[in-house]
Amino acid sequence: MYDIAEEPHMHQARRQFLKTSGMGLGVTALASLLPQNALARLDSTGGARAKRVIFLFMAGAPSQVDLFDYKPDLDKQFRKPLPKSVSQGQRVTAMTRGREQLVAPSMFKFHRQGKNGIWMSELLPHLSKVADDLCIIKSMHTNAINHDPGKTFICTGAEIPGKASMGAWLSYGLGSMNRDLPDFIVLNSAYWTGGTRNVQALYSRLWGSGPLPSKHQGVAFQTSGDPVLFLSNPEGIDTGIRRRMLDLVGAVNQKHFDEIGDHEIQTTIAQQEMAFRMQASVPELTDVSNEPEGIRRLYGPEVEKKGSFARNCLLARRMVERGVRFIQIFHRGWDHHTILPKQLPGQCFDIDQPSAALLKDLKQRGLLDDTIVVFAGEFGRTVFCQGRLERDDYGRDHHPRCFSAWMAGGGIKGGLSYGETDDFSYNIARDPVAVRDLHVTMLHQLGIDHHKLSFPFQGLDQRLTGVEESHVIHPIIS
Asked: Which of 55, 67, 99, 223 is deepest in the core (most CB within 10 A)?
């Protein structure tokens, strides 16, 4: 039987073995550094096209019917029941179960955009101008029908909490490209022009490290005050005093590690050193006053508000320049069960110009070629109405059977519409893409074989993509 009291002796015995073996601790220490730069090469698909990811997460689930999945014939179906041959008895939420499913066509106009004539909503005038950089995937699907498991699934690869997030996996698998900032940074947007009524909470486990060492978890920047909590020195403590304190604490922690061998102690030492360096790097990063006026104007008027989606997109570009591996920007308020036509334009105002500006800004600096930008929510919305139904007033329930996302950069084809849904944007008609397929494709572009990016925990090799078979979406890769 395992006795936790014996654990320090087990670690000591292991260290003694390594000291007396031909390898020695020096080689072992070198091996411990391999994941920083070598894991992707050891377990590589060969030929990485991207180095980093910016994930624009629209929490609450945008309506694909009103933004990307144009269905002109739906006008003829207004207020008619959704045919049972389409719904096929599929599960719905408790909010619409047992109620009449009346079709609600989008009230917004669509236009063909870019060289290939991709259909896009009038609500996205700025993104429409960069349509040739977008790959719109209209055949996404997921297992989750409620927000919490849906968000958890797309962020961590599992509906059950406790798994490592994608950013944590990339930090673990690819290592750091800089020494003064975290590998994984989270930006939560604080302002919503849409004035939406349904804004679900975001949980730190969406950017957690799960079973991976905790140094790989995301660092969430704050929308007010210090960008990172407790980053500033207390009153009366200067940098020199802070350095001496850190050296003393580090020495105590190192002695503790030598005694018991817990690698989380090394993580603590590394994170404390990172926090010290961040005292200089973070204020410089978040000070956008030196950005040219033309660049700030590119991102739109909201860029002047700290914590806005526009400001976060500009910060994401600055993070990319400084070698941050994974940046996740959350924008909430997309849960439009009622009065969607009133609320959706405001939501789109928040994200349209900044998202397009981010792509333009990355591109003009030569950074889009090796940066993957992803735009997605946790699922889609129903074509049938929830609540009041008029031509210009309707709501939509959750819909996991199909939804739209887009990708750009990092070797992804631009000007492409991939996958199709049926005439009601209810079922996938061609080229289905599961959430894990999206993960696999992103990893592939980063040079990682998803089968080999794993971590042993509780008797299993944990993976972002789980055990179900997943596939690279080769047709969208240039």
From this structure: 67
